Amino acid sequence: MDSRFFRRLGWHLFEHPRFPLACLLLALLVALPSLSVGFFSDDFMHLTFLEKRVVWNPSWWDLYRFTPDDPSHLEKLVAQGVYPWWTPKDFALHFFRPITSALVAADFAWFGHRPLGYHVHTIFWWLALVGVVALLYREALPGALGHLALLLFVLDDGHALPIAWIASRHLLTGAVPALLGLAAHVRYRERGFRAGRWLGPFGLAIGLAASEAAAGVAAYWLAYEWLGRRERGRLRHSLPLVGVLAVYAIVYRALGCGARESGAYVDPGADTARYLANAVERLPILAADAILGVPADLAGTLRKGPMITVGLLALVGLAAGTRAVWPRLDQRARRTLTWLAAGSAMSSLLTLGGILGSRLLLIPSLGTMALIATVILHGVGRIGRAGAGVLVVVHGLLAPLVLVKGMFMLGNIAERLERTAETAEIAPGTERVVVLAAVDPLLGLYPWFIRRANHPELTENWFTLSATRGTHRVTRTGPSSLRLEVEGTTLLKGILERAFRRPERTYAVGDVTEVEGMRITVAAAEAGAPTALDIVLDAPLEDPRIALLGWQHGALRRVTLAPGETLTMAP
Fold it and tell me: Which UniProt keywords apply (predicted)?
């Protein structure tokens, strides 16, 4: 499967100078399904923050500050049900994304509660990213190889969330200026483009102010200077990059940004050991996603062992395929692929602090797609052609289908989540909603924000006792008391549940948590995780100001129990 093979198929069009424009049009086409998604999860948090409907609200330029600096304010958020009862007092989650926050605030000023405008704005950033990647490939990897890599980048199914989820737009707004700066720097070093001397660090600085993900672009810059150049001056040309990163790190820490005591987010600076331990299993899982299209998002529900094995085999296969075609490449292509591959690996390592998922591969995929395009275009031998064929099927046929389907699935999930929050059986005048079993972590956190965003007149507080996907039994043990048990598993196992508490912070029988009008006591535990809770309210369960809800028949329905009665709720 070489260039002659592609020409026989009519793939000489990959050499056409207007091919990037066709990719840009294709990028617009695959992004159109995102227009139907609406708001989803964190988007509602941003709406409530901007409308000042929470007891504590971050500034309009700091919407990704999810916790206040003052621990007493965090205690109040937990006490009023904004954050779950298992959130520790020293929990912190704050990302430095002022540019992205300002753009969301501008969307809100223009479009209010109409999500279509937000999504059109996001598509603009997606098209800008494709244009910048095309520019970078033209500088570093010109010709059919760069065009094929661009096509694979556009069709990459891992881009669904950054395109379709408004709150995840930060990945795009961070990548665009940073990669534009990288392209300017490469042009400066390769062709003497003098403006690239300052456009490079300036673009990176703007990207970092939009998203910490832009640090992945810095990895490509370092790889380019130290592996893509063969002359003196590499250290001198790396110093502006180091300076930008140093200033960013100082500002980041000075503002108290980062994650603390979270089981899903890991701050590499504050918890380096755990970060590196996670990397051992997360990097192969991301490799399986990037190379063979095995979604990294499934790591939260499937066994990680097989996914790690697939990832390691995929890495070995891609390395072997690249080595086989290496003699066919000219010196410039070899040099470019070397620094792109190293940049991809290093940028992958820098992304591992967030919740594991395909969206983490947005910037790393820049180098990965270049390697995959090389193996597809130059695959030799029977095994090489078979491997190239597999990559064509995965990235050329399946990936775009999964990309579009992923957006529609996100839209369906968002619609179900909002519908569930809106149709919950809550009578007018309710002051306190107690969700005994939400079944889904999304239902454990976001209904309060959805209802506050859509109905500013509501004042109800919302407490979720369990968001574990499993069968629950609830027994009324007294006039104002309950026991909640989960079968065959433990509480606090879901990824969003763990986002608010590290697994190392365990519970023991007898541990008590006080929230507004309710005392929660761990009645049974297994390996440090609760399996049963005793709940005592400050009023009888029949009090009309209290709504007890549970997941029943596909909705959050009111739970009424006689003394001693037990109700089983299955997902």
Answer: Membrane, Transmembrane, Transmembrane helix
The Cα-based distances of 161 to 166, 235, 396, 538 in angstroms read 8, 37, 19, 42
Asked if the structure places residue 117 within a domain, the reply is yes
Output phi, psi for 42, to 5 deg: -60, -20
pLDDT tier, 380 (very low <50, low <70, confident <90, very high otherwise): low
Total Cβ atoms within 10 A of residue 520? 20
Amino acid at 294: V
- Pick the last residue of a domain from 412, 447, 477: 412
Domain boundary among 412, 433, 461: 412
| pLDDT at residue 553 in the model | 87
- Of 217, 370, 234, 355, residue with least CA distance to 286: 355
Full residue range of the structural domain in which residue 543 is found: 421-569
The string of pLDDT tens digits covering residues 52-98 is: 999 899 999 999 999 998 888 899 999 888 999 999 999 999 999 99
Residue 505: DSSP 8-state: S
To the nearest whole percent, how much of the chain has pLDDT over 90?
76
φ and ψ at 56, to 5 degrees? -135, 135
